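User: Some background: our group keeps a shared notebook of sequences we're curious about, and every so often someone picks one and asks for a predicted structure to add to the entry. Today it's my turn. The entry only has the sequence so far, pasted here. Could you supply the structure so I can complete it?
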Amino acid sequence: MATRRARIHRLLDLQPARRDTLRELVQLAKLRWRVEHDYRELKTGLGLDHFEGRSLPGWYRHVTLVSLAQAICTQLRADPKAPAPA
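Assistant: Of course. Here's the predicted structure to add to the notebook entry:
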C-alpha cells in the first residue's frame, strides 16, 4: 500500500513541467485579489453572512439572492454608461 506522500509524488511526476511567465503570475495574483474583493463585498456589503435561518432551503434562497445582487453590482460596475447612484 502506497503512502500518501508516494501517491502525491507519483501524481506530480505525471504532470508536465510548467513554466509560468512573470506576466501570467501577475495575472493570477490580480485574479486572486479580485476573488477576495468580491467575497468581502458579498459578506459585508450584500449580507451573505447575515443569514440566521434554520432550514437549508432558506439558506439556498438567501445565497441565491445575494449572488444575484452581486452579479447586478458587477454588471453595473462594468458598464461605463450606467448612471452613478445619488
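Suggested note for the entry: The mean pLDDT is 80. The CA atoms of residues 75 and 82 lie 9 Å apart.
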